[in-house]
Amino acid sequence: MNLYLLQLINGIGIGMIYFLLAVGLSIVFGLLRFVNFAHGAFYLMGAYACYAFMQLGGSFWLALLFGPVVVGFCAWVAERLLLRRIYDLPHEFHILFTLGLAWAIQELVILYWGPVGVNVSPPAELNGVVMWGAFIYPKYRIFLIAFSALLALVIWLLLERTRLGSIIRAGSESPEMVTLLRINVYKIFGLTFALGAATAGLAGVLAAPLRGVEPFMGIEALAVAFVVVVVGGMGSFSGALLGGLLVGIVQSVMSTLWPQGASLMIYVAMALVLLLRPDGLMGRSQ
């Protein structure tokens, strides 16, 4: 029984990383109607930012603070100089352009750090395990769950209790409404895109001590992010949270029941959700 409880808790931790990875993708599409295939590359940048900070003698805590800021700033520059020019084009152009951007980032990572993955150690304060009787669990994973839950609350407050959140939610319902309110839509679009990329970068920083970093991790992350968004519902914060937890728990538990098919089962779960609720668990009919 302890094994399945352990895998359930592991699934919650993984699911919270998936939530942070997917929530930015969901919000960006909800507001901008922009298909961003470079989102996994921002996760990759966050993971390597964590590695770079620690290699330069910094701490994991500095990486956790500044890594997402660096990723968000790079995304803001890319949106301002490049992506803003293709918003009005068909989705096919969005996909091709952002795929090219993702591959460029991946190749730059390979050129600088090489094609071989490296390990990232958790901070010294979070090394070791916590024991509750016969149940043993790593300190870093406990921190990951607690910190991600706090971040989820902060993001919810940002979306539900601030003027920026009101504009983002209004834009998700009707982008034309934002324009009619005489709001600088391009400024809001750029800020939203940067925030979405920063959350993906934050997910990369948090994931680095769990799985290490390697140049191709962005491709896997992108696939999982789209699964979470489809399962939860496009443009929905609660959908991204529910979808991330569901996908993380399914993957973690199935790694015990059927290790060879653990990754496959998340796509089976997505197919089942689409059959029962085509707009996702928390999505609205478009």
From TrEMBL:
By its UniProt entry, which CDD domains does this protein fall under?
A: TM_PBP1_LivH_like
In terms of superkingdom, the source organism counts as Bacteria
Ranges annotated as spanning the membrane: 12-32, 37-54, 60-83, 95-114, 140-159, 188-210, 222-250, 257-276
Q: Which GO terms describe its cellular component?
A: plasma membrane
Q: How does it sit in the membrane?
A: Multi-pass membrane protein
What are the UniProt keywords, alphabetically? Answer: Amino-acid transport, Cell membrane, Membrane, Transmembrane, Transmembrane helix, Transport
Identify this protein by name: Branched-chain amino acid ABC transporter permease
